[in-house]
Amino acid sequence: MPEIVKLLFKDSLVSAELDNGEVLNLSYDAYSQYKLSSGMVIQGDLYSELYEESRKTECRDKAFKYLAVRSRSVDEMEKYLRKKKFSESQVAETSGYLNDKGYLDDYEFSRGFVKSKMKSGKYGADIIIRDLYRKGIHRKTIEKIMKECGAAEPDMEKLYELALKKYNSLKEKDNRSARVGNYLRSKGFDYDSIKKVLRRLGEEDL
Question: pTM surpassing 0.90?
Answer without folding.
Answer: no
